[in-house]
Amino acid sequence: MNKMRVCLNKGGCNVYKKFIKRLFDFLTALMAFILLSPVFLIIFILIKLDSRGPIFFKQRRIGKDKNEFLILKFRSMKIDAPKDKATHLLDNPDEYITRVGRVLRKTSLDELPQLLNIIVGQMSVVGPRPALYNQYDLIEMRDEYNANDVRPGLTGWAQVNGRDELPNKVKSKLDGEYIEKMSFAFDLLCIARTFRSVSSAQGIVEGKQENNED
Q1: Per-residue pLDDT tens over the stretch 96-135
Q2: With helix as H, strand as E and coil as C, how does the chain read?
């Protein structure tokens, strides 16, 4: 009886992973994009008034099956900022972050354009955060947990358990834990905890930290 229950649970999870999750991602991202369109417009104006450069920032990231894609963000840094280095690894991030960018990053509003990445199928609402193409150690560690085999997420289990404060080994392990537990209920838990983390700016680190290169 217990074996049968395990099989049913696994079967349900597989259906969610293969079919329902993508539908959930698409509908959720599309609805959020429509509802937040006035916020997008306000941010467009503020970015253009604050500093010279484009509204959006594009960066090479690793997606499902280690295929590269361009992630979208609202530009929060000056145009001469290093483009292929994680901000928490910069020695002097304050030199590059704009005034509006500081607010966007503190509130995670700079991540909103990734709703478009989700709509076109490059990302998921919940999943491992997409690594930079040159974060080779993190990518390799994720291979151990099959965390490169799924779409990366706008938020994720590692995000709500420490975010930038976590060393790569811990991030990878948490990503693997997400892969094992992936389900509709677990995704809802991640989303709920994301709102809590964002409201308290939990885990956001600006500037190089010793443990981030582990």
Answers
A1: 899 999 999 999 999 999 999 999 999 999 999 999 999 9
A2: CHHHHHHHHHHHHHHHHHHHHHHHHHHHHHHHHHHCHHHHHHHHHHHHHHCCCCCEEEEEEECHHHCEEEEEEECCECCCCCCCCCHHHCCCHHHCECHHHHHHHHHCHHHCCHHHHHHCCCCEEECCCCCECCCHHHHHHHHCCCCCCCCCEEECCCHHHCHHHCCHHHHHHHHHHHHHHCCHHHHHHHHHHHHHHHHCCCCCCCCCCHHHHC
